[in-house]
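Subgroup meeting minutes
Present: P.N., E.W., G.H.
Scribe: E.W.

1. P.N. recapped why we're keeping a running log of single-chain structure predictions: easier to compare across weeks, and new members can see raw inputs and outputs side by side.
2. G.H. added today's entry (318 aa).
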Amino acid sequence: MRKKRHPAMMILLDILAVAVIVGGIAAYRLLIPETYVANASGTEAAPASVTSGSAAGAAAGTTTGTSDWGASFPDKFTDGDVIETDSTYMSENVNVTMTMVQEDGITYYVQDIYVRSIENLKTAFAEDTYGKAVTDWVLDMAIENDAVTAINGDYYGVESGGVVIRNGVLYRDDANADVLVLYYDGTMKAFPASEFDADLEMANGAYQAWNFGPVLVEDGTALTSFSSRISSANPRTAIGYVEPGHYVFITVDGRQAGYSSGMTLKQLAETMEALGCQVAYNLDGGQTSTMTFGDEIANQPYKGGRLTSDIIFITDGE
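Output recorded in log:
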């Protein structure tokens, strides 16, 4: 004789089965890399295989001539030789000076950067692929792109929202935080999410755009209030603009007792102002904060750092 199953037990088993299926789908969506196609509207199409600079993405890009800033900084570039030390790099296209600063229990690294052309400041995706949860180490991305120096970017791939413009290509247009734009003419401008218009800024010559923030410096003055819940001392990464062709990278080590506590957003803003930045912007920080110089990590990332989706780097080529 077959035993009858109790109705309550059958319902419970059905609920458990559904929970397992839903949980599996959620884990897959969160952990399995997905690549997206960039299209002219900046939205994400159905997941597919696409590499940065694809034909689909290029349709959204802007073809803009670039300036040669050699005459603006005649003492910053060589006539063709490459001069390198442990903390400097100087060539006909690039000049980078790295300084480690230790004060008040904080250790941070500053790279003062001059480039001859905007094409010497680029961005790269992990695995050369635009997509969610596609990650790599900052150093590995830097080496793969022959970077003179690099810092982590905004970790765009950790979420499905946000603005992504990289090397002149509009991949995504969904501003959800302060946006920083670097234009082909070398200038930088920051926008609140509510005031950012991707189509307009692409028409204005947007070359790169990051969506993390907050903005730290505007018109040469450090801000004192920030649209961020993480304003306490932490590891930080930021990018600054002094003038066309002259930029600043900074990485602050933190959460490491006896070595470096990190910076508050207020301290970071004041530091970027003191470095002469007219505009400065906070990028992804915490365990992500990493700076490279040559083929080595320059700073001491918290817990050894972590994988991320993108970098900002300086290249001696084009």
